[in-house]
Amino acid sequence: MRKEGVKVEARISLKRKYIYEALTGYIFVLPFIASISIFLIGPLIYAFIISFKEFSFLNPAASKWVGLANYINLFSDPTFKKALLNTTLYSLGVVPTQLIIALILALIVNSDIKGKTFFRVAYYIPTITSMVAVSVIFLYLFKTDGLVNMILAKFGIQGPTWFNDVRFALPSIMMMAVWSSVGNYMVIFLAGLQDIPAELYEAAEVDGANKLQKFFNITLPMLRPVVFFNLVISLIGTFQVFDQAYVVSRGTGGPLDATMTMVLYIYRTGFRDFNMGYASAMAFVLFVIILILTLIQRMFFKEETY
């Protein structure tokens, strides 16, 4: 009887300890759960609800339910189509360019060149620079009488007006984006390169492989998870481009909507036109587009990303 009583007490003690540890854990994660519920999950649910309404924060009481009208109107909205086209072209131009350049830079700074620490810092500095400051700098560089056109004039080339030209406004933002973000992806590629076992390259050298063969048969296959990560992050970032287009066009998306992006149009619709219901609908359409593109990439890379 005494032994059974001791066992019961031990079980009760263990149960109390388990409950105490569980409560302690929940108390520690409670601030995070509360913050993410208040500032992320709650607003997402609220935004999804008002995407089915004609809604303005200036007069919330006057909002009315319109069902799928906001989503249906998107397909007949010429500005939305232009913004979607611009964002797609921007993504197609920026993503492969910045990833290729980032990989080349990573290979350079991972080699045995002298002063590679300096080059790592130099390539990464633009990444930590304020995008607003970068946009202002590029506005001065690409002015009609700016440095870029002055250099072109030395070769007898008449430079365009860049940000004020429908043909060159979006490509100019693309160049700005590549320059300012390539360092971030370079660092991630560099981490992936340094994680590749040196024994693989040594074995390839024994088999007589040259540098090009080692790159395509060892480096690239081993970097597939890193490439997938960078590709997804880069794609999401390009489809959410806002600050460059806002600063360059002063929030108008001009000239003639040449720099109008999805997020800029969402911002204008919600905070300038105060049509928050329509803006929320666009935001969720953008979310679906990014989700689909991410899943397509995941299917392409399959289990080889592990």
UniProtKB/TrEMBL annotation:
It is a multi-pass membrane protein. Keywords: Cell membrane, Membrane, Sugar transport, Transmembrane, Transmembrane helix, Transport. The chain crosses the membrane at residues 20-49, 89-109, 121-142, 168-191, 222-242, 276-296. GO terms for cellular component: plasma membrane. Its main location: membrane. It is found in: Cell membrane. The keyword rRNA-binding does not apply. Residues 84-297 form the ABC transmembrane type-1 domain. InterPro entries: ABC_transporter_permease (IPR051393), MetI-like (IPR000515), MetI-like_sf (IPR035906). One of its GO terms (biological process) is transmembrane transport. It comes from the Bacteria. Belongs to the binding-protein-dependent transport system permease family. PANTHER family: ABC TRANSPORTER PERMEASE PROTEIN (PTHR30193), INNER MEMBRANE ABC TRANSPORTER PERMEASE PROTEIN YCJO (PTHR30193:SF37). This is ABC-type sugar transport system, permease component. It comes from Caldanaerobacter subterraneus subsp. pacificus DSM 12653.
